[in-house]
Write a structure and sequence with these properties.
Length: 299
Amino acid sequence: MPTITKLVDGPVSTPLPFGLLSVATVVDVDDVHEMLGVSWMDTTCGQAFTWDDECIGDESPVYPESPESPESPGAPESPFDTAKQFNRPSDRSADAINVYYGHECSTMGESFNEARSAARQGLLLGEQRALEEAVLVDILATGGDGQIPVHDLTPAGDAPLGVVQALAYLENQLAIDFGGTGVIHVPPGLSAFFSRFHLAHREGQRKITEMGHRVAFGAGYGSANIGPDGQPAPPGQAWIYATGPMIVRREPASLVPDDDSAAIDIRTNARMVLAERSFVVQVACVVEAIRVDISCCGC
């Protein structure tokens, strides 16, 4: 190898497609207060029921006497006294998830602007993976500290299911508990199974199951790979989750510091720059989880 080389630009990559940010509704916020955390009323988990109309039939219904108005026999009961069921919204909240990328170089190796550009590119490439890992650990596996019900659908005492069976379990239970289209959260290594068995197809920049759920093949889901018990899946196994729809609120990325003098550590002659961005993730209704076997190619 020659002792003198010419400095050129290195390869540049782009973030993986089909991750969490491809399936969530992404909101670029203007109000910085939203990055302190948000709260909302979740009305998505209520159930609808059927009832029999007593007025339809051969005879008119006979109503009992109202206890508040005994002088009005035959008055119908209050709707609040009937056996109908009413859904109460759930209070939900979400804290900020702060993601950063730190870049360090020698003061003689790069300029301040080059260091800032490298930090910005590093955040762009890695923020989705870091966000996915935080979502898995702090929301999917725990239900957001118990706010959202988490159902482990792995059959008790049995070996983990194959990927096709697992998706069937998840979509069936999500339909029962939620009823709308949601999100399937999958480690990226399982994308080959989804392709092999035609479990999802592409619509624009998203992957969609045949039931209409969006699929997030998240690198962060693969790096953490934990279940609702907080423990990593054994070798040859993985966790898949299903949720209701999601909103990801994010602020503009920021670079710290603003001037070169504050970026330099004079003790080591190193220049350090941070690129940072905060996210707030909202998840609707419920979390379903299941452990799958990824060691067999026919599953």
